[in-house]
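Re: folding output
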Amino acid sequence: MVLEMAMESVFAIVDIFFVSKLGAETVAVVGITESLMTLIYSLGIGISIAATAIISRRIGEKDPQQASRTAGQAIITGSLISLALAIPSMFLYRKILILMGIDETAADQYGSYTLIIMGSNLVIMLLFINNAIFRSSGDAAISMKVLWFANILNIILDPLLIFGFGPIPAMGIMGAAIATSIGRGLAVIYQFYLLFRGNHRIGLRLKYLKPDLAIILNLLRLSAGATGQYLIATSSWIFLVRIISLFGSQVVAGYTIAIRVMFFMLLPSWGISNAAATLVGQNLGADKPDRAERSAWITGYVNIIFLGIIGLILALTPSSFIRIFIDDLEVIKYGASCLRIMSYGFVAYGLGMVMVNSLNGAGDTVTPTWINFFCYWLLEIPLAYILAVTLNLKEKGVFISILVAETAMTMSALYFFRRGKWKLKKV
């Protein structure tokens, strides 16, 4: 799972590495597009969490047929939601970019990136859901291999399509979107090949893709909480980007690169916390709640050590990571400031991720939703505006608000995990 998440983070790093060669405005467009895509990621992750909770429980109960049936219904649910989002976004992408602070000229010139990424969100949705199916059943190595495959394609195609080579024309920022979509799309085809081949814990059959209303409603019930918590968390990033855009494209570019670097560092730890979700679900299914709790604590300690080391490195040398992507001194300055401030909370992030994912793995998706609502909407967004605009700390005020909100989230999740009511959850 750690290696899987490392591969997922490579997508973000590769795109921003090559796109940054085109200038600060293109980086800003990529950053705003990614902040918009987090809404779609939220839905994909929400369904994935619901599928993980149910499938891991069925595997723990030694019922692989019902686990496979749930997998098929998760795929149907995600596909329908994805298509409902893709169609309007393909017509509204330009207006959305302008609303988010991009000027009309840049929206016209670079909006093709947003159009392609938002229009092809089905492959992103299915990539999340299918990997969650493998992961929750215990086949985490398959999820890792799928993302290796997708990333190799993306790394090859990105420079070819962005800058051109031989008969391949230079497509600029649009080439980055096409490369990412092709890499992810072929990875999804590979996932379905493995699922239908049927020699793993989950084996798809066409009959499992026939809508089963009872399972779909159960998935939607669980995913509503899971989607809500990630939608709350990720939509807050849109408001943060909007506040940061008040201070210019170079600030947005620095923030975008810093966030990509941070996600690159954090995603392996998401792999560790995903392990906690699977272990909690399977152990509860096997009627071993004490072992489920012990699994979560051990995973939390590992994550604290891992992110503590990463946070120390980022705090000491933040600018060196930004320079990998761009040589604009102003962008480097803002990006380094963002990385340094956020790295102070990495130890807290490590424990918080595990606590939240453990609650999700048990099927308690409502508690993390309320935690996120308080920490991100009631605390982070108002605090960011007050510090950045009212107190005139500018972009540093936004960075500080992220640190405060993430730390508050960790403390809240720890409190509810220790109460232990999640052990009684039925899914």
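--- second protein (sequence, then structure) ---
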Amino acid sequence: MQLHSKQREVASSTARFKVLRAGRRSGKTAYNIEDCCFRAVSHNDRNILYVSPNQKQSRSIVWEDLKKRLSPIGATFNEQRLEIKVPTAEGGHSTIYVGGWETRESYRGMRFHHVVFDELDTLKDFFVSWQEIFRPALTDTAGSATFIGTPKSDSRNLQRLEKVAENDSDYRTFHFTSYDNPHVEDSEIDKAKEELAYDTFKQEYLAEYVEDQGALFNYSALVDVFSNSIDRGTSKYLIIDIAGDGSDRTVFSYWEGLVEYKRVGYKRLNSESIKMKIREEAQSHKIPFSHVLVDAIGVGEHLPHDPLLDGIIGFKSSFAAIKTDQSIVALPHVHYTKEAPLTSVYKNLRSQCIFTLADLVNNHKIASEVEGQAKEVILQELPYYQDVSKGDGKRFATPKEDVKEMLGRSPDDSDTWIMRMYFEITKRLSPHQSEQRAERAEMTAQQFLKGQSFRHMNDTR
């Protein structure tokens, strides 16, 4: 194969892990087919794996090309398993495996010398599987990997790896566009440029990241949350997101200042179990009840009013935003108030918390020490939140129901971060404004008692 200049740059690199961000028809897959073949024939007993989003796609992308490339040297092909036994220059054999991301668990415990991940930004939960399955598979062999793909706006695996490469010398990044492939006419690419929306062309052909202008969270800053180093402070907080029907996961999130230092998920806790767990964890971590906040919907609705949890705070997204700022257009009434009345520019409490969280994230003022799946789901969820204000003067963030529809599941894991902002917002209240907190607590209590009374009337009928 005659490599073009960008492909030669990749081939000549000695980096162990290569990240290729490339445009459509730029030659990224063709290069990796050639690379896999070269690695397989060079030495005995090499295990090479090519993975794309699914096995059907892998068959259509590389299988036939691998057969054409390796048939002349006597390779044997297992059509059902998509495995190729390749004769080597040393007189032995190596194996090329062609698979799909949907069967990634089948590779757990195997040993590989090289792995290619194609269409990286479409591989769901990539980093968890990379850390738990594929990275260990390269340990015994001191193996290598190539990560290739075109950027996607709803997934940022490539961008995450490029950030890793900034601080890890084992990684090197490469970027080439469709124009870099001399085998594709520039006129064809120019025609696509005329026909496509600019952002689409920029992403698909120039392989550039397209930022959503309405996104509240800067993705790079969001990734940095898990490596930020900030002053913890002395105050501790416990935030609990309770599963609505008690059958799913209840999340306990532990904070020192604005550092989340622990996160635990519990399955199928009932109301009584949650109550006892709150008491136990608050005592164990020395967190006062006034710094404990629970999602007061469904199973958690009555917890803030339980005598054994006296002082914890109930959170409801539908609550009105907390008024923390003085109105710049209203003057104080000298007979009744010494200061201008308080106001808020947010549609509801949830929006106020989301905007507050975005500001802290984007300015690197918040940190989390959680890893693994907990980290990954938060990185999936928060990028979906946008400023969807309607021009009525009130700032409004994407409703949770809309995020759920786009994400394909409920964004529950990031809810603890959003609810944690309640305490940051209330910090802005001056001492003489504390009655607002009391009014909110009293309102919640009255709503609860009213609901209890209504249910009791129905039960006695």
